[in-house]
Prior knowledge:
- The protein is mainly alpha-helical.
- The chain is about 80% helix and about 0% strand.
- It is built from 14 helices and no strands.
Amino acid sequence: MNASIIILKREFTSFFSTPVAYIFIGIFLALSAVFTFIFGGFYERGQADLLTFFNYHPWLYLFLVPAISMRIWSEERKSGTIELLMTLPLSTLQIVIGKFLAAWFVLAVCLILTTPLWLTVNYLGAPDNGVILASYISSWLMSGAFLAIGMCMSASTKNQVVAFILTVVVAFLFILTGTDLVTSLLQNSWPNWAIDTIAALSFLSHFQDMAKGVIRLNDLMFFIITIAAWLFANYLIILKKKAN
């Protein structure tokens, strides 16, 4: 684990040694404000909560997380530093975990910087802070799932644009599976158990359930297992490329 922490520190520092992290955080905060106050009608709703803020997170992550994950492996391969990285006395799994945690902590910084919204809601009214805290936790877990997919796509190609597009497509499918549109389209041709299985893979439904303030074990495990599965796929891809 100490080796993963070394990689975490290296990667986290590298994010902030270039404008990448600052631009990403700035865009995240700006879009969060636009969606909350303009499109979400924060003041017009007349309710002391952050529902409009969190409702847009899946769609924010759909495009912003691939923008930060696309460079994680693609940049290493393009610059040739991946060969140097693989010669270090670290296991491939430790490197994968370290890189993931570094980027995930950048996403945590984004969410922490939105806490003035939380303070604003408490100033304007008496919100259920337990629900808001649960929403922050579920949002961070969901961002980790998007990130794990993005890292896997980044490991599979040298081209950052291709990695970005692949991540958006795959992540969009994980959002789409839980919508009424998909359910209604499959209803006449698929058995109910298959439709339920596909719907259970939706990031949207698990996130919304947790954002209501009820953190159930199955929702937690869904995101944890999703993250672990995609990181393991990432590990296998890097191992294969290392062998070649």
